[in-house]
Amino acid sequence: MKSCSKLITILVFFSNLIVYSQDTHYWSQQFGTESALMSGAVIGGANDNTMLFYNPGALGFLDNTSISVNANAYRIENISIANALGEKASFNSKQLGSVPLLAGGMIDTKNEDWKIAYGFMAPVNFDFKAIARRDGNFDIIANDESPGLEELFGESSITNKLSEILVAFGVAHRFNDNWSFGVSNLITARSHTFNRNYSAYVFMNDANSTLVGGNLSQNIDYYNVRYAAKLGLSYQKGNWKTGLTITTPSISFMGIGTVASNIAARNLKLIDDERISGVATDRQAELKTTYKSPFSISGGVNYNKDKSKIGIAFQYYASIDVYDIMDVAPNTFVRPASLAPELTSDYFMRAQAAAKDVFNIAVGYEYMLKNDLSLYLSGRSDLTYFDKRLNESNGIKATISDWNLYHFASGITLKKQKSQLSLGLLYSTGVTNNYEQKGSLNNPAEGNLLQGSRTITKASYNSLGFLLGYTFYFKKFELQND
């Protein structure tokens, strides 16, 4: 029974090795060309089919039978978590890549009061890879067993890749010159792969150079497809455009995932005076998955005056209670099974998600330098929805950041009769000095070799990107002349 209680302590220590994630934001990506340069402050209305995402009601006011929009962002991202494993042993992840912001168009209905649009977007595209290592001589084990300093070597690595592809299909009806209503059907495919490995070992200063320590490996790999509907209302009159949207909570209708964990402790003294070794491992595949996005409501106003246009938008996202992404079966976890049959996989391998409520604001400004050339400047908040209730549960927590982001955009759009070309610079930043880091070996001791110590440290995110977008218009009168 004593050995079982010690093994429970080992496993709980290991299962709490966590870092938190950048994949906890709703407004990291914006879509299209003009809409991205306005930081999404276009809920009142914009002249392209990005309204499919921002406000389907405003689709009814588009005066083109077909619009094709393509936009991409090319960016460099840097995430830094100071002292992740110990002093001068930080996590640093630098990524270079491209993000498809929108590809879509409209379908000619032959009726100017009805509009149909479609689009493909990437609302989430996050890739984090980092490794930290610490070694040196420390006073870890009591001198009666190991006199002097012990040699320690520890290493922690994380790979976290998360992406979402959104397919949208929307319909809008314009009731009169001022009012239009629309609905967008949003189908989101989410793919998430998370891998974490941690190890910490010391050599005792005894006749056998006894090895003490352990290692942890955690893996999550799943996909999920969910559906939500966005209802939008748009009112436009004179220089004013206003909009209001409601997005339903998502419905998860398919998905498969795999989860695995392996924990091993060697000659570790956690309780009393007895050194013990233990192993716990399981892998479960073909598990049904669930992923949720919340109810949200957004609104905005856009005002045009002479050569200037200004837009203001907000969006509120409701909270989501803690839930299991996968249903892990209570299989045998400890090996051999007779050692602790009451410790099952569902306690240590559960993968959970949750979200706190979030309120974001965007402001965008456009100035017409010439009839065919416009300058843009905009910014938006992007508050994290990370719910700290997840810290209190056991299992695998596959997130990295819990800090707020702020995004800024500037660029130009060159407009021609049938097309427009947009170029822009995108900058994002976020920082916290209160990042809760578990797994640090700043003060290594035998009691914390399996989890390290809990520290408060600094974490930051910076991203610099380049926007390239192209929009092509097919005018009604041109189609009729053909």
TrEMBL record:
Principal subcellular localization: membrane
Membrane topology, from the record: Multi-pass membrane protein
Signal sequence interval, chain numbering: 1-21
Keywords for the protein's UniProt record, in alphabetical order: Cell outer membrane, Membrane, Signal, Transmembrane, Transmembrane beta strand
Highest classification ranks of the organism: Bacteria, Pseudomonadati, Bacteroidota, Flavobacteriia, Flavobacteriales
Keyword Glycoprotein listed: no
SUPFAM superfamilies named among the record's database cross-references: Porins
Protein name: Long-chain fatty acid transport protein
Compartments it resides in: Cell outer membrane
Organism (species): Zhouia amylolytica AD3
